[in-house]
Amino acid sequence: MSTRGYLLIAFALLFGGSLLGQVVSQLPDPVVVVDAVPPPEPKKTPVDVRTDRSYHDDVVNKRYDLPEQAMFLVGNVVFHHNGAVISCDSAIQYSARHIECFDNVIINQDSTFVYGDRAVYNGEENFAQVFSPVIKVVDGTSTLYTYGFSFNTLDRIGRWFGGGVVYQDDNVLESERGYYYSNLHEMVAVEAVEMRNDTHRLTSDSVRYNTDTRVATFYTPTNIWTNNDEIISARQGQYFGLDSLYFFHDNAYVLTPTREVWADTIDYNGLTGNVVLTGNAQVDDGENRSSLFGDYIRYWGTSGFDSLAGRWREKGEGMMTRRPTVVNYQEQQGRVDTLYLRADTLFMYVGYRSLQGPTPDTLPQKESVPLSVVPVVDSLPVFDTLPAPVVDTVPPPALSKKERKALARELRRKEKDRQRFVKDSLREVRAEQKAAARRAKRGEVVAVVDSLAAKDSVAMADSLPTPEPVPVAVRTVDPAEPDTVLRTFRGWRNVKIWRRDMQAVADSIVGFSADSTLHLYQSPVLWHGDNQITSDSMTVWTANQKPSRAEFYVSPIMSMMVDDDRFNQVKSRTMVSHFRDGQLWRHDAVGNAEAVYYMQEDPPADTTAVFDPSPIAFVALSSSEISFLIDSAAQTVRYIVSREQPRSTVYPMDEIPVSEPTRLQGFAWFSGRRPALEDVFARLWRPSLREWYESLTGPLFPIAARIDTRRKYLIDNRMWIDRNEPLPAHAVEFRDERLRK
After folding, report:
1. Which residues of 480-514 are buried (b: 16+ CB within 10 A; e: fewer)?
2. Is 715 helix (H, G, I), strand (E, B) or coil?
3. Residues 624, 642: Cα–Cα separation, whole Å
């Protein structure tokens, strides 16, 4: 915004033809509005007069039907009253306090000059009425053209009516009427107000403006159109023109080509671009399909030192606090999936770096080792229960000979399905590896943590107790390309995440734009459906705002409640989940993998049949590494792939030894910490106003066009002169003489 302009000259809306006092009574001190307070008692002081000649003749008085005491004043006429000077070519003085001035009229008080062709002055009421085809009022750098103007020399308040336009530097303001406080150098524009300068256009109904300090205050709904294709609206606000500071209050709103912003208060620095939103703030970013909510949101538009924080701030950094929430939404197959994230404080940091070539692959591909594949006896929901291992080939004693044969046939059938499924899965893994190699040749770097291809999965898990962010599919750029912007997102204390199919809590969260990762720290807990995962820390890689891989570090435990006292559990040193199009298709338990779970009967196909979900057996399973291959469509475990022959034990429910632990070391069930949607987001989501604001018609300045056309016509036809002369020397001399007395 221009610091020279007086931006936001204000207006007051009159409802039902009421007086200005109904609006300007809200003006804070020291502004004195005569319509809002009782007018001062008129001064009973005479009007001092100086003129070259005067005529007091009965014939003249009768000719013009004037009072007997009337006097004609001709040549260099000057009146002085209340510190104001009226200069004209001729005048009629009806009494000591009633005067009518003609030709080349100038009214001057302090720095205010009023130019007209005729003026009537009532000294009893200290009131001057000015007449001219166009009246001109000048105060410093501001100039007003209007059709009607009056001025009170005692309270020094001028009023324009019938339409007026004000020019100051590169600013243009128009309104149907307005008030000017000469002693304060303040204006109040009223009704049908429009304003423009080199940065914006404005419409409003009531604004107060100081021509010295360039501070504008508006009290009624105001709309501003900027040169950046933005629309700003608020019911109340202020603008400090010298510093380009904006303060919008009471339901402030900003519309940009890609965003909508609401807040109770918006503070904006036009020089730096810094913005502070306070009170029920909402920022909708349609381009990135996200929304921000909080009672305090701060954004730094330019780099500089933040004296409050005692650190350097880069351009584009931001902070959110006081119940902040970040919302991301994606539409898939006609359904909108929304993710909500909140913390006590959220920060966005900005950094810069130049990519000078491919980043070394921190996790190179290793030789593969033979796999042992365990078929799933029953098709179960993801992690509902693990299948019976093939080590115990003899069914529990409770099964009859006929049941054992039927089970063997089922195992042979599923073994054939398993061979086809594993073959297809391994083909997909090899295809991903080849694609990664091709991307590496093109200058892209892909870090692959593939437990099916790793040679020593236990050693790999040991190397990741405190993970560092690993770039995935990082694009390399030409060295001549400008530095790449790196954004870091951080959340501290009471981190909560909610999505329809997933929830999580943690003490802190960090996100990196370089590799599109989210890191959760300090004993995070993640829930997916009926499953719970706990670990020391977690990392999630995303692509197109969808998860592509998740890793869980330092003895993670995945569990699911079977009943109030029984839980299925899986534990290892590290766990890795792989996603395709946002759907989980594989989960790896890497390093000293253990599992305890309860076998249950499959629900019958006939939903009306009686079904007993009670567990029928308890299984304890261990291996160096286990991979769960999942049917993405049904989200059910199809097969379990092991690095080695798993060790397992199966117990009927009534034969579980007391010495056999049914809960893994470190297991805990945190159902009370699982957040609900209202724990993460408990605000009203304002609907979009974009369509309504974009339909608004901006200011057209009809009053300015009408007055400018009239001025040009009068000047061209020599009917009016656009005057700008100072007080005549004799008027200045007379004024100074009166002031010395």
Report:
1. eeeeeeebbbbbeeebbbbbeeebbbbebbbbbeb
2. helix
3. 8
pLDDT band for position 634 (cuts 50, 70, 90): low
Q: Give CB contacts under 8 A, 24+ apart, made by 501-505.
A: 501/528, 501/529, 502/526, 502/527, 502/528, 503/527, 503/674, 503/675, 504/538, 505/673, 505/674, 505/675
pLDDT tens, residue by residue, 17-42: 232 233 333 333 333 333 444 555 55
DSSP three-state, residue 222: strand
Taking only the tens place, the pLDDT of each residue in 446-468 is: 333 333 333 333 322 333 233 33
SS3 per residue for 578-597: EEECCEEEEEEEEEEEEEEE
pLDDT score of 182: 84
CB 621 within 8 A of CB 646: yes
pTM for this entry: 0.67
Question: What is the Cα Rg of the chain in Å?
Answer: 41
What dihedral do alpha carbons 542, 543, 549, 551 form, nearest 10°?
-20
The DSSP code sequence of 627-691 is EEEEETTTTEEEEEEESSPPEEEEEEGGG--TTS-SS-TT----GGGPPPHHHH--S--PPP-HH
3-state SS, one letter per residue, for 426-479: HHHHHHHHHHHHHHHHCCCEECCCCCCCCCCHHHHHHCCCCCCCCCEEECCCCC
Please name the residue that has the structure tokens 């179960």: 380
Helices (H), 138-294: none
Tell me what pLDDT residue 259 has.
Answer: 86
| Gap between the Cα atoms of 190 and 171, Å rounded | 17
- Decide: 415 and 375 in contact? Cβ < 8 Å: yes
Q: Mean pLDDT over residues 496-512, rounded?
A: 87
Cα–chain center distance at 247: 16
Q: Are 393 and 413 in contact (CB under 8 A)?
A: no
- Nearest CA to 440 out of 549, 542, 358 is that of 358
Strand pairing category for 135-139 and 142-152? antiparallel
Burial of 438 (0-12, 13-18, 19+ CB in 10 A): exposed
User: Between 149 and 415, whose confidence is greater?
Assistant: 149
Answer yes or no: is pLDDT of 301 > 60. Answer: yes
Buried b (16+ CB within 10 A) or exposed e, 616-652: ebbbbbbbbbbbbbbbeeebbbbbbbbbeebebbbbe
Residue 511 or 177, more confident = 177
- Residue 100: is its pLDDT beyond 90? yes
Residue 214 has pLDDT above 60, yes or no: yes
What's the mean per-residue pLDDT of the chain?
A: 75
C-alpha pair distances (Å), 717 with each of 374, 711, 712, 714? 103, 10, 9, 5
Residue 96 pLDDT more than 80?
Answer: yes
